[in-house]
Amino acid sequence: MSGILVNDTRSKARHYTWRTVAYVVAMSFGSLAHGYMASIIGTTIGQPSFIEYMGPELVQGNKLGLVVGMYYAGGFFGACFSAPLSDRIGRKWTTFIGAFLTMIFSGILAGSVNPDMFIAFRFFVGLSSTILFTVIPVWLTETVPPEGRGILVDAHPILINFGYCLASYVGVGFYYVQGNNQQWRGPLAIGCVPSILAVLTVPFLPESPRWLLMHGREAEAWEIVQSLHWDPSDTEHEYATREFADMKRQIEVDRAMEFSYMDVIKKPSYRKRFLVGGALVFFLQGSGALVINNYGVYLYAALGFNAEKQLHLQAGWVAVAAVVNWGAVLVVDRLPRPWLITIGFAGCLGCLIAEATIQATSLNSDNQNALQAGVAMLYVFVFFYGFFLDGSTFFYIGEIFPNHLRALGMTYAMALLNLLNIIWQVPGQAALENIGWKYYLPFIILTAISVVVVPLTFPDTRNMALEDIMTLFGDEVRVNDSSSRELEKESGFEHKEGEVA
């Protein structure tokens, strides 16, 4: 067989070892850093000493919206910096820079002496941690083998949610530290620890082999693919040989292409990618998940719970998210991508409708069963979001963009994510105070639309090599039959005793 190949004869075995998994986990320390710093505000604003030190006006209405929104404003710029930086110096070293800056800015945030300083460094922490948020899934997508890509890239949202969980329970623990400002400074300072772990480990990780190939560093790229894309039974590295030949041939095509930003609009295959990626982010943020995460203590207050129980319920909510993200690895590579996403949105839709109904009919009443059901619906919501949707943001968007556009595509998606969060988060507290349950209506409408749009328009990329996915969008693919040794000879690559010829 020759010509364009959509699905070749690759074995469906998982061609990776514990070394691959260890590298993925080490890179995901940056994901942990992002998750912790993104979530810690949820308990910080509920700490009595924080309210006393900064003044009660900082945690009310529009001022609180500014505190929350500045993180995402910084995140927008962090996402925009990520693509040019990672294309120029590499995915690995961009991750290192993001981790180093997050470490510094987190420490300064913990030492804030007034509200203005706190708000300003929320911006800088958002900027630096979003560099991590954006570049890590690119490295993961480009480095791991195709058959395990969904599972391995899911390490990014898993560690993000573990960061959410850790931040929440650290906040709960410090709630009982009475009489000094360590109640709120301590949790913020602990946020430096994941960044320190990333700074210490990332320099020892391999660079993305596809980035190395795009910069003409073929021997280094082959060494990485050979060591990470194999299993012990493949002693001749035949699988890695085929994968590397596919990568090299396609990147030769990509490097020969002239690209301008107008191509995103003019070229149908690029336009479709940006529309699909943007739609996914739009629908995910339109579900209201991060509003629930950041304003959870106020939602539980509205349901009649005191300050201590609010923090415990908030911590429990993110703990559920962390657990179900781990469970998601059981299904992410078993279900077609569009249906995985659709099931998640359908479950979230049901929960949003139920929550809005409960708050519309039972708030300020003595119906304790209804109020407890309101809490339960928020927990069921995060089950569907974490199990079916959270990982898709990263592995699906990483998959649909070709090598030369992947960093730009992820930057576009994460910049859009932060812009949308500014729209939803800044007015969040004021909206919850003034219109209550009606704030759920736009989330319900957008999520209902997603249940229809996703299965009809999103292509299925499950278990496909990144080079093969290009055919789904109508691009030219220069990958021949991977079982043929002729491919290697024609591409100028031969596997011989573990070296590149």
Can you walk through the features of this model?
There is one protein chain. By secondary structure, the protein is an all-alpha fold. It has a single domain, classed as MFS general substrate transporter like domains (Growth Hormone, Chain: A), CATH 1.20.1250.20. The chain has 27 helices and two strands. Strands 1-2 form a two-stranded antiparallel ribbon. α9 runs antiparallel to α10 and α19 packs parallel to α21. The two termini are 25 Å apart. 56% of the residues are buried. The N terminus and C terminus are likely disordered.
Number of domains: 1
How many helical stretches?
Answer: 27
For the biggest β-sheet, the strand order reads: 1-2
Compute the gyration radius: what is it?
23 Å
- List unreliable stretches of 5+ residues: 1-11, 480-501
Distance between the termini: 25 Å
Average pLDDT figure: 84
> At CATH's second level, what is the architecture?
Up-down Bundle
Structural class: mainly alpha
Order of helices and strands: HHHHHHHHHHHHHHHHHHHHHHHHHHHEE
Number of strands: 2
Oligomer: single chain
CATH homology superfamily? MFS general substrate transporter like domains
Biggest sheet descriptor:
2 strands, antiparallel
